[in-house]
Description:
By secondary structure, the chain is mainly beta.
Amino acid sequence: MKKVLLGTTALVAATAVASxxxxxxxxxxxxxGGYWENTIGVTSIDDDQDTAVPTAGVASxxxxxxxxxxxxxxxxxxxxxxxxDNGITISVDAQMELTSADTTDRIDESYxxxxxxxxxxxxxxxxxxxxxxxxxxxSVSQAGITSSDYSTFYGNPTGNSQFNTSYFNVQGRFxxxxxxxxxxxxxRISGLQAGVGFAPDTxxxxxxxxxxxxxxxxxxxxxxxxxxxxxxxxxAGSMHWFEVPAVxxxxxxxxxxxxxxxxxxGLNIGAGGWTVGGGFAFSNYNHGSDLTTSSxxxxxxxxxxxKTGPWGVSLAxxxxxxxxxxxxxxxxxxxxxxxxxxxxxxxPGVRWHAGLLWADEEGEDLGPxxxxxxxxxITGLKLSF
Length: 385
């Protein structure tokens, strides 16, 4: 009887120890974060026509020609994280849009991250490695010379999508904007890191690309290292869609017979408070057998940034071209942008920013309606919490 009792006691003790080990990790802890940005700007547009603003771009209808416009962007982040006994960290991140004009896109990125000595896995609605690991022109600009934010102030005269093509875009989002995906990032070894990701369909999850692309493969490399006293950051990446809508003769979309590929490269070199560098990207959209043409776009950028204490100033230039027909690009388009930007940290999480932009874009198919030259002066505050 005593042996049975001892055996039972040992079994209970072992169970208790095992249970204690299994629950030693803390339950996932949640936190709130986010940002709030308000920007105001004054615009002067010469668009070679009598209408108020260029008519080709969707954003043009919201621009007050020769007047004042405003831009607002805000999100709240719901984040949680826990570390398991085996050293693996599991976290979640869901970001809610507070000012989106598109009421169907109230939840932006929402994904799970699993990380450890093996690297990192991201699973959910999030951008892919070629976008997340890419470098472009160094800048302190809040709007960004290769961002669509400036379209709020002077429109989009050529109608090219900066999110979807390499027209004024050197980071390679390329039709993938937070749709469901699965990606893996290696540990960084001697400054080198690699990433690879796959997206089954742009219409899954929180994607907002308004397309029907399938089977997308993304890869990227970046290298961050000190070389002879200089801080060097370099990147290369690609996004390839194996199945994309073909364009038929009447301009509508047909079966997924085409393909689309983009490549993006970046290099930044820093010393002291200075950083100089730039980016280059090009993309090709093959419409498939229904139409034998393709649409190509490329952009290159150069920039210099200086930061000291709370102050920062930058100068950046971008040149973009697109060639093609169909619904991807409207004819042959070309554009140049030059931006002088400044910023100042007023306090923890409070940043003032300003930018002066000159932009000149010329299109082909729509006559003067897709040509515009603009000067834009903006300023605003961004709050991070």
